[in-house]
Design brief:
The complex is a heterodimer. By secondary structure, chain A is mostly beta strands. Chain A has 4 helices and 22 strands. Helices cover 5% and strands 50% of the residues of chain A. The radius of gyration of chain B is 28 Å and the shape is elongated. Chain B is mainly β. Chain B is built from 7 helices and 20 strands. The longest helix of chain B has 9 residues. The chains are: A mainly beta, B mainly beta. At the A-B interface, strand 12, strand 14, strand 15 and strand 16 of A face helix 1, helix 4 and helix 5 of B.
Chain lengths: 453, 365
């Protein structure tokens, strides 16, 4: 529990806060309760997407009430969990199969508490994207490992903690997602928290480009409700670095059913270029009925992106779990940022409806309208990696909808039959980089078995 | 910041439009040196340039202009509002662009190629003999195409948007390398049906005879050339023994009195190649007149070379004998009966023009 009235601002915020997990979270079958004990946990709280475990503080995550079904949370100094998924994805109108179409993914998490303040963390993803390739021909074992030093202390009546973590930082969101959101990152992280304040620093390697790194320094207050950031997007070679100054805010309202998020940043080029994001979400539940509606506006002035040329960012490790995130992502804007000004409106809606018995209906949609303008003559027209011609107006709609069967009462293991147009755009060699997150060329039907052990 | 933040936010409701591609291109044409302009040439018929499209054997000619002195460095520009779609012929080529990326984690990435249908019009220089300012490629027209672009030229993308959709960012950047905007026209290089984008450059026109140039245009560059075997005739002065002096392999050897014969007259034909050269030995001199004519039809041009060799006693040449006066002696070491082009000439003679072209110099009609 965070004490009230440390300042006028804190009073104003905290009068609207109830420091419990969100209602939307309670409805998610595999979502652990967001915990302050997981440092720098910037996973989106306002969504019904499955919230994947983070590769740190696994003991703390498995100690949450919603993780009680996990079988590996009570092994003493060892904690273990696995999200297992087996699926068949067939084409309805899509011209080609997505790479993951007859696949299994065992997403293994393990943590060893070597001492009271040192954890050894391992996330080992075992998967085969396609049974069509031949028996075990395309099987992968992709580990992400880390050591996490953490130490709590108390000074002058307030508690604090120190964290040093690396190299697997797992899915990372900076601020309110203007620069980086829901993005797998490897590098290093350091945190000094004291009372309502913290100072954090990230180093991330190979973020959007093969030769880039990010270094960032964050000063947060009110448990992250306001945060000031300086970020260096660094490039090896001749490409000049980009420096950003950034101010972000996250404010939960009305028992954390409503979330307001905003972020404004400037790329300090010779002539500063600005970007902004504003988001509002409403998530609630009634019994097993849960829903979420959200809106976000993004604006990236021409030249705001880190790379001073026309170049598509790429991402690696594009596994199916990344579909539990929005297509609206800075990744899709930065490739053409040097040539075009961009702004967008995104509407998202998610709902899970109990149908009686073991069945639930699920639906989610993301409507993303992007506007791309060329403010300079002569006009230059290019195609985005998704195949859109810009400048112009781009409209993308992503959806997943279908039935889920929960055969075990009070357990999240499930069987799903979904119709969707949202498949991760993974190359044939799964660890190769890809310039697009999702395939949007048609519709698919997916039959999935999932277990959260 | 180039516009206020509030203004930008308000603009969020506006939909940016994608203007159509430009339908014009600016280019600079360089005439071949053979077409150096002089007063005489200008009087015979205006030398003009045009951009020529061919569609179903119908020729469309852009609104070109008259070539005057100084055109070599001049600049021609199509009318901005020319309807390129209407002008585009069915003559299509394939524009190919490729890029390479070796930077992805040190892994080799195969080249990514983009293919697009493109038209390839010709830029031609022609003599407007009938004076109507139009270029006619009808066989009966007196207009003569004297030069046209060759390997490097311009192309028009059939569907620029479809082409752009295939392009990677690197290829798109190359597409705009000339600093111009969104256009269906671009500079290309390549022969046959496969083109590659090239940096903008002056279009060097290549000279040629009308028949070949006309056929090239009508056939969309898909023209075949066939060279027939040379026909050689030898006239041997009566003072010599034909049986001992007739070159080996030449059947048509005639013994004549060169002294009483008339000077040779060149046929009034469009020769694609013509030269005259003299050679000497201790006792003999030869005059070789070489001509090659071309006839074209059905996208095939046949070149017919012919050589006429006159052999005379060195100390008893006829009065019209041009060697040393109008035609230079060749010192290339070949036998004087060899009907070959000369690569080693004597010093330029001070003789007057005897009515024959300079030895070894390719001439054009």
């Amino acid at each position: 529990m965070i004490p009230c009235a440390r300042s006028l601002a804190a009073v104003a915020f905290w009068c609207l806060l109830v420091p419990r997990g969100s209602a939307a979270q309670a409805a998610g079958p595999a979502a652990p309760e967001p915990s302050e004990s997981v440092v720098a946990d910037n996973r989106d709280r306002f969504t019904l997407f499955d919230r994947r475990l983070l590769n740190r503080q696994l003991h703390d995550q498995l100690a949450q009430p919603d993780a009680a079904h996990r079988i590996g949370g009570d092994f003493g100094i060892l904690a273990y969990a696995v999200d297992a998924e087996v699926a068949s994805v067939q084409r309805l109108s899509a011209p080609e199969f997505s790479r993951f179409h007859g696949y299994f993914v065992f997403d293994n998490f393990a943590s060893l508490e070597a001492t009271d303040s040192l954890d050894l963390n391992l996330n080992l993803a075992l998967f085969n994207p396609s049974a069509s390739d031949g028996v075990r021909v395309s099987s992968y074992a992709v580990p992400g490992g880390g050591l996490h030093f953490h130490h709590g202390f108390e000074w002058a009546g307030r508690r604090g903690r120190i964290d040093v973590l690396g190299t697997d930082l797992d899915l990372t969101t900076l601020g309110s997602g203007l620069l980086l959101e829901h993005w797998p990152l490897e590098g290093a992280f350091a945190n000094l928290g004291y009372g309502d304040f913290y100072f954090r620093s990230y180093f991330g390697g190979r973020v959007f480009y093969p030769e880039d790194d990010i270094f960032s320094w964050h000063l947060g207050a009110l448990h992250g409700m306001v945060e000031a950031t300086v970020l260096q997007w660094k490039f090896r070679g001749a490409t000049p670095d980009s420096w950003y100054v950034d101010l972000s805010s996250r404010v939960p309202l009305f028992d954390e059913r409503v979330g307001l998020r905003a972020e404004l940043a400037a790329n300090l080029r010779q002539r500063a270029r600005f970007g902004a994001v504003g988001r509002i979400d409403y998530a609630d539940s009634l019994g097993r009925l849960a829903w979420h509606a959200g809106y976000q506006f993004r604006w990236y002035q021409q030249g705001f992106g880190p790379f001073r040329d026309l170049r598509a960012p790429t991402t690696t490790y594009n596994l199916p779990f990344r579909a539990d995130g929005y297509a609206t992502n800075s990744f899709a804007y930065f490739g053409i940022s040097d040539w075009f000004e961009q702004w967008s409106h995104t509407l998202v809606a998610e709902v899970e409806v109990p149908l009686g018995g073991y069945f639930r209906a699920v639906g989610e949609a993301e409507v993303w309208a992007r506007f791309v303008a060329d403010r300079e003559a002569p006009l230059q027209v290019i195609a985005t990696p998704e195949g859109h011609l810009v400048p112009g107006t781009l409209l993308d709609v992503y959806y997943r909808s279908g039935l889920r069967l929960y055969p075990y009462p009070n357990l999240p293991h499930r069987l799903s039959l979904l119709v969707t147009n949202k498949q991760v755009a993974t190359p044939f060699f799964v660890t190769d980089p890809t310039p697009t997150l999702f395939v949007t060329t048609g519709h698919y039907i997916a039959l999935m078995m999932e277990a959260f052990l | 910041m180039r516009r206020p933040l509030l203004g930008t936010l308000l603009a969020a409701s506006c939909q940016p439009a994608t203007p159509p591609a430009e339908a014009d291109i600016a280019f600079t044409a360089v005439l071949p040196s053979e077409l150096e302009l002089g007063d005489e040439a200008m009087e015979e018929g205006a030398l003009r340039f045009a951009v020529v499209w061919v569609e179903d054997s119908r020729v469309r000619v852009s609104d070109g202009g008259r070539i005057r002195d100084g055109f070599v460095s001049g600049r021609a520009r199509w009318p901005r509002h020319v309807n390129a779609e209407r002008l585009l012929p069915r003559e299509r080529a394939l524009l190919v662009t490729e890029d390479y990326d070796y930077t992805v984690g040190g892994t080799y990435v195969p080249p990514r190629a983009a293919y697009a249908d493109a038209y390839r019009p010709r830029v031609v220089a022609y003599r407007d003999v009938d004076g109507d300012a139009e270029l006619s490629l009808e066989p009966t027209s007196p207009d003569r195409v004297l030069a046209s672009d060759a390997i490097t030229g311009i192309a028009a993308l059939l569907d620029p948007e479809a082409a752009v959709r295939q392009m990677s960012f690197e290829q798109a950047r190359e597409y705009y390398a000339d600093g111009r905007g969104y256009s269906r026209f671009l500079f290309v290089t390549g022969s046959g049906s496969e083109l590659r984008r090239s940096p903008p450059s002056a279009l060097s026109l290549v000279a040629g005879v009308h028949a070949e140039r006309r056929e090239e245009i009508l056939c969309g560059r898909a023209m075949f050339e066939r060279r027939l075997s040379i026909e050689t005739r030898v006239f041997i002065d009566e003072a010599l023994d034909p049986e001992t002096t007739c070159p080996r392999g030449v059947a048509d050897c005639s013994g004549v009195s060169l002294t009483t014969s008339d000077a040779p007259v060149l046929a009034d034909t469009e020769a694609v190649e013509r030269f005259a050269v003299c050679r000497q030995s201790a006792d003999l001199e030869s005059l070789l007149i070489y001509e090659a004519t071309s006839t074209c039809g059905g996208c095939v041009c046949e070149t017919t070379p012919s050589a006429t060799l006159y052999l005379a006693v060195r100390d008893d040449v006829p009065s019209w004998w041009p060697c040393g006066t109008g035609v230079d002696y060749c010192r290339d070491g070949y036998d004087l009966t060899t009907p070959a082009y000369c690569t080693v000439l004597t010093e330029p003679s001070e003789a007057v023009d005897a009515g024959l072209p300079d030895a070894g110099v390719r001439t054009l009609q």
